[in-house]
Structures are given as structure tokens and as C-alpha cells.
Amino acid sequence: MAYTRTDRALNELRPMEAKVGVIKNARGSAMFKIGKTIAYAAVYGPREMHPKFMQNVERGTLRCNYNMMAFSGSGNRVRPGPSRRSREIGLVTQNALAPVIDLTEYPKTVVDVFIELLQTDAGTRCAGICAASLALADAGFKMKDLVCAVSCGVVGDTPVVDLDYSEESYEGGAVDIPIAVIPRTGEITLLQLDGVLSKEQLQKAVTLAKHGIDKIYEVQKAALRAKFTGGK
Amino acid sequence: MGKLLVEEKAIVVPGDFLAEGMDYLPAGGAFRENDKVISSQVGVVEINGRLVKVIPLAGAYVPNRDDIVIGRVTDVSYSNWFVDIGYALDAVMSLKDGTTEFIERGAELSEYYGIGDFVVARVANVTKSKMIDISMKGPGLRKLIGGKIIQICAVKVPRVIGKQGSMVGMIKDATGCQIIVGQNGRIWVSGKNPEDELLATRAIALIEEKAHISGLTEVVKQFLDSNKGAQ
Fold it and tell me: Cβ separation of A231 and B29 shorter than 8 Å?
């Protein structure tokens, strides 16, 4: 079934907004908004890892926590709050961010990243990763690069980028593929997919996502710079 | 050949290209990938000959040997004091490093430094797995009595101290306070009256807020002059 978008082009992202340093108590924090999806991330630590058997004597550990707020309006399929799903997304977020961050200066410790979704309209784990990578940079950790994430996929038969909830739950069937990329090297640190699609469709969707990533990277960098030059 | 891609004093974020070609070498806060020098931190670019460096604008304190730090005693055992120096893990001060006095066998160690006491200490040793030993042996190292402790971001400590202590010296002269700046971002301020301490505290807060601008000494000087008159 052919699908057409009315509000934007098939390769166009929803409007984005990012802000760094939004939570003063945290060592680093950021907000990332894409369309109606709003993610906040706060970084605490490094602090001593407990229980002690989980300590790594070589380097610090990154630990991510993903949560949708009770009022986030996430649709009828996903219910907010701690669940099997949120544990899993916390873990994949962690794995998406771990390759860029250098915690060798903080052995035996843990760096906690808390991601809260205030409002959800699909693409939450991607918004969460974008916010978390900004928050880690804001906290002053050494990083190879920021991490950018966006969802892409196939709605009906049409490859698109940055699906919203109405597209994700499209009657004619939709495949949603969240992707996280290290923009400079093009390395993919997260790619999840369930659904059925052809190889060509996957390639087209991923290409669309990689173009989208560049726009997200610009928004992220501008937001980080704005925090540190804003005081002037 | 090699060329710089940013200006000196520019504010950069992780992943920004700083220089191209093998003529430039990455120093702290930067790394090389192929022929590019890339920033790994949020910070200000400093170029020193061939060295390109990023001075961080944020970050946690990481102890280095011979840092003078202000710590809080968190626990006392039979032969050690445990001291929180603002790092994730507590530092250990052994009996022999605690004081030059003779301590008798079985003496109550909390009579020297009790839980909650603040001390100025020197980082004696840091191992690779970040076991930190601190010592009280050295000039000016002591238990802090009276005054107040301010916590600032550790990466901004060099600005508070200034070149050869010029900045902190200026605040001391203007307010008449005693000030000790720990490398871990803790600052002890003790004055004759609370107003002096408050003025010193506000001056330090101003430095922390404007740490990335140049000509900071002038700004702080003006601030101190205008507020001293008001008192």
C-alpha cells in the first residue's frame, strides 16, 4: 500500500529543539525535542559503584535508565513506567553511547544517565540517546564524538525517516528501525528492527536516516555551544 | 601542509575538528584520528606552538599527585582516616601521614581528626586503579577551624587562583579574608566578619560563572571595588 506524508517530505525530520544544562542539580543535563517527543537526560557521577562486585577496575561503567513519564501519553500499546521494555531500552541506550565515552579516568565508579520522556510520539529511544549524549558532553566527559539517533523505516511500502506515532501504527503495516550513529565515522551503534522488509527498502531507509543524522548533529552542536557561549 | 581549523580561544565541543595535518600535535582534551586533530571535550582551544589543547569547561575532579585538596573526614578506623576529597572514591590517610606528632598505640584517632572535620591535605599517591593516599605532612597542611567551605567546579580552579595566585591574592587583599583554594574545587574562606566572607564568596562565584572570558581580572577588580564601597 502506498503511503504519502501530508505534513512533511518523506526524507524530512520533524522540527527539533535542543537545550543543554536544564537540570542544575545534575553534573550534566540536556533536553532534546523532536516533533511531539520530548526527552530529558541528566548525568550523575562518577560515583562509587555498588554492589562492589560490579566494579570494573579498568574503567568506569556507564549505566542508563530510560523511563516514560506517567502522563507522557504514549499511546495504547506501550504503557509508561518501569517494565521489561524500559529495561531493554536502557540497555541499548547504554550500548549506543559506550563506544564514544572514555571513562578510563574513573575506575570502580559508575556514571548514571537518567532519561525521562515527558511526552511521547514515537522515536523515544532516539530522542533519549540524543539528549543523553548531550548531557554527557555537558558533564565534561571525554568523548570521541556525540551520538545522534533517529528512527527510519517503511510505512506501507514507502521508506521514510523519523516516524511519528500515527505512522508507526499505520494500518497498512509499518516497520520501525531506530538507528544511532557516530556522525564523524559513520559507525552505527544501535540498529533495531522487527518486521518484514526487503533488502532494498532497508538500504533506502538507512540512507535516509544517515542524511537525517547530519541535521541532528548540527542541532546538538549548536545547543552545546549555546550553553557555554551564552554567558557572554 | 598542516592548518588550523579553529581560532585560539574558540569554544569547541566533542568531535570538532581542530587542526589538519601532522604539523599539529594533540595535547590534553584532544586526540588524533588519521591526519585530523579532534576535540574530545567541551572546552576552550589553546594553541602553544605545535600543540593544540582543549582546556575543559566542565568535568569532575580527578586527583593527581601533589594536588593540595580540601577534604572532609568520613570515617576513622584503627590506623587510617578516610577522607572525601570530591572524587568518587574516598582517599585514605594513614596514621603516619596524619600528623607529625607521636601517636601512642591504641590512641583514639578521632581526637586528631573526627568525622566531619575539614582538612587541607596533599595527595601523596594515586595508583592506576585510583587508590588515593593523602598526607598532612607539609607546609600549610592542617585541620580547618571556622570559616566556610565553597564548592566550585574543579576545572575552574586555575582561574580562581590566577597567574601566580594573582586572582586569589586580589580577593584576599580586598576582603581581608584568609582563603585556601583546593585543586578539587573546594575553597575555604575565613574572614573577620560575615560581610567580608560574603563578598569573597560572591567574587568567587563571579569567577566561576565567567571563567571562560578573557580579561577576568579587570571584571573581578571592578566588582570588588564597587561592592567594597557599598559596605
Answer: no
Answer yes or no: do A144 and B40 touch at CB < 8 A. Answer: yes
Q: Are B17 and B3 in contact (CB under 8 A)?
A: no
List for chain A the helix, strand, coil content (%; round to 5): 30, 30, 40
Nearest to B130 among A27, A107, A144 (CB): A107
Distance from CA of A177 to the nearest CA of B (A): 25
Cβ neighbours of residue A213 closer than 8 Å, sequence gap 6 or more = A148, A149, A150, A179, A181, A183
CA dist B41 and B56 (Å) reads 6
Using CA atoms, how far apart are residues A223 and A229, in angstroms rounded to an integer? 10
Q: How many beta-carbon pairs below 8 A join chains A and B? A: 86
CATH 3.40.50.300 applies to domain A16-229: no
Q: What does the block give as the cell for B194?
A: 560575615
Residue pair A181/A215 in contact by the 8 Å Cβ criterion: no
ipTM exceeding the 0.95 mark: no
Decide if A55 touches B, using CB distance below 8 A: no
Cβ distance B88 to A141 less than 8 Å, yes or no, reads no
Taking an 8 Å cut-off on Cβ atoms, the answer to whether A144 and B29 are in contact is no
Do residue A231 and residue B89 have CB atoms under 8 angstroms apart? no
pTM: 0.94
In this structure, what DSSP letter does residue A228 have?
H
User: Does A226 contact B at CB distance below 8 Å?
Assistant: no
Q: Are residues A220 and A17 in contact, defined by beta-carbon separation less than 8 angstroms?
A: no
Domains B3-56 and B68-144 share a fold: yes
pLDDT in tens, B80-125: 999 999 999 999 999 999 988 888 888 889 999 999 999 999 999 9
The class of domain B68-144 in CATH terms is mainly beta
